[in-house]
Amino acid sequence: MAEGEKLIPINIEDEMKSAYIDYSMSVIVSRALPDVRDGLKPVHRRVLYGMHELGVRANSAHKKSARIVGEVLGKYHPHGDTSVYDAMVRMAQEWSLRYMLVDGQGNFGSIDGDSPAAMRYTEARMRKISEDMLADIEKETVDHKLNFDDTLQEPTVLPTRIPGLLVNGASGIAVGMATNMPPHNLTEVVNGTIAYIDNNDIEIDELIQHVKAPDFPTGGTIYGYDGVKEAFHTGRGRIVMRAKANIEEVNGRECIIVDEIPYQVNKADMIKKTADLVNDKKLEGISLIRDESDRNGMRIVYVLKRDAIPNIVLNKLFKYTALQSSFSVNNIALVNGRPQLLNLKELIHYFVEHRHEVVVRRTTYELRKAEERAHILEGLIIASDNIDEVIKIIRASSNADEARANLIERFKLSEIQAKAIVEMRLRQLTGLEQDKLRSEYEEIMKTIIDLKDILDKKERRMDIIKDELEVVRDKYGDERRSVIEYAGGDLSIEDMIPNEKVVITISHAGYIKRTSLTEYKTQNRGGVGQKASTTRNEDFLEHLFVGTNHQYMLFFTQKGKCFWMRVYEIPEGSKTSKGRAIQNLINIEQDDKVMAFICTQDLKDEDYINSHYVIMATKKGQVKKTSLEQYSRPRTNGINAITIKDDDVLLEAKLTTGESQVMLALKSGKAIRFEEAKTRPMGRGASGVRGIRLQDEKNDEVIGMIAVDDMESNVLVVSENGYGKRSSLEDYRITNRGGKGVKTISITEKTGNLVSIKNVTDDDDLMIINKSGIAIRMAVKDLRVMGRATQGVKLINLKGSDSIAAVAKVMHDEDEVELDEDGNIIVAEDAENTDVSEDGTTLDTDTEDK
Fold this sequence. Notes:
Gyrase A, domain 2; four-stranded antiparallel beta sheet; alpha+beta
């Protein structure tokens, strides 16, 4: 140890605490957090001030970025050159700043995350809006401090006319705190600021009428308003952002087109992650993703599979990808050097307070300069009035100092005035110049009076602030980019699907599709019909019903299992398309197939599910009644709905209220009618009770079941060779279940066996489809009511060995039908079109045994 040197023992714990506090405050105050007044961090402020001092203005030529970075590094920012260049680059990126502060030339990166070119290759200059952030800085409007080596002065804040913190936002991570502030529309912010100046007691809810929401540079949609209001009121909130997407048809394929994405989302990364989800089968319905973005704008194309539903795919993209992102607002900024959480009104208040101080300091500076000039002009005017004597005194003096002293003594002038007179040029002695001096003096005295009035009256200062803000708004204001969608919360898939009427068809081979009902047209009885579906070789339609997109579907298979699906989840196809294998939609076994289905409303509505029942029938004549509540909890792999014996299969399932009358019809032409109430509800595991006795256990079977609620309706039956009729319901007497039934149609070789039974009214239409896929649609009212035991009339002309595959009914007067909340039919003028079955849930079909 050198002589005289002292060692001071210290506690390392105390030293670490002290050093870390110093470091923390340095990061908070001098690096990571923006100042509430100009909205800038030190590095951004230094870049702009350095460009200003370097003369790289908006109207000058671009200068090499390396030169600008060197200027800032050498004079103001004692950190790495990367930090300065990165800060300058961000101020030149249109996807980073709502209002760019630097005009870059060269490669300044991209929204795909590409790095900018090295600083030696790029050039930059200030933008006009940046010049307005530095306006009047030479008029002592802000405080300056010594730079890092005490050789130069730098501003502690810029005298900005732009409310920079609100219009461009900020983000940064300090020690123990972070800030994340969204950008806003300049026009809206200026309007809000003016409203605040007019009324300092304005409520935040009133300010929100002007500053509606953040306005992101990448556009997109602000989805939901609750987070915006919370951020404006408290300084913290979560704002949900969505991409701007449209559904278009491109080259015959439906595509989702995205031309705006959420703020701070890397486009390339988003596309890559989406592709990974598609490849991993976690996101279905997309066959190809193309990035067609160019210098004209962004365009991401998601090409959909042919059976995909665009709105469902789009909703999944929002759910699983960055097409929907959130911005967590945390409005922390430095107020008088201390970090503070700020709401919207406080942000505006501190900016107005800063502008007021700038106006006061600028006016004070201008007043001082004006008074100094007036003082000199007073001396020059005195000299002008006594020009001959002044010349004589100057000529008699041996030097300038003596001349000044003599002038001061003779005319009682100040040192400054005497100096100005001595330095006055000869041309100022002319009469014209003397008039100019007096005119200038008069004008400057008016200016002095005006400037003093500004300093005396706060109202005038506020008017000046408002006028300058209006100039800024007129110069740089633009339209909002981010659209505000005020409906808060996440939309469900159902919200995005129109509740339209559709026809659901299932083929014998298990292909299913959903088609708009408008593709089917009513024809006269006896017509040949039109092609209803293109099926695969030796396949034919087996089930058909009409429902709406928002209904729930319960699928019942011949083995007695039940599966759930929403109607809109069924792939959409044209009337002639083949559809999609149902095995790809539900987890059905290979040797099982769907035999019946019903549509229900909300399965979470306890009153609804506890007041409705599912009644089922098997081909061997068993029936079973189960509460709908037993089917209200969907499972991916389905559930057992009924226990089926080895030699039997499930045929039908109907939704009822428990008060219906049930009719079962046999292939042999017999039918039975009994009260549903006499069948007690059973659990899902039961096999049911006998509903009707078969005439021949080997050859006879049940071909259909109807649940009747309207006692005025008729019973319609159709045979396999196209014969049919309708009879009065009263022709079938009510008996106990389990009997043999009565004749419902006269079965002959010409008619063939019975294949379908329906209960109908005059408002219904009948749709009949044969095995070859030909369909005919006719009005039920065109069929006359006949006796129960007759064979009926020819309904459809069959070719060769063709036979009936399916029979269904639709409403006749579609424009006069709507559903009540339970799905029951209401006949009302100008009601919406809806086609449902007699039980208000589905349009059922009956088929013969294949």
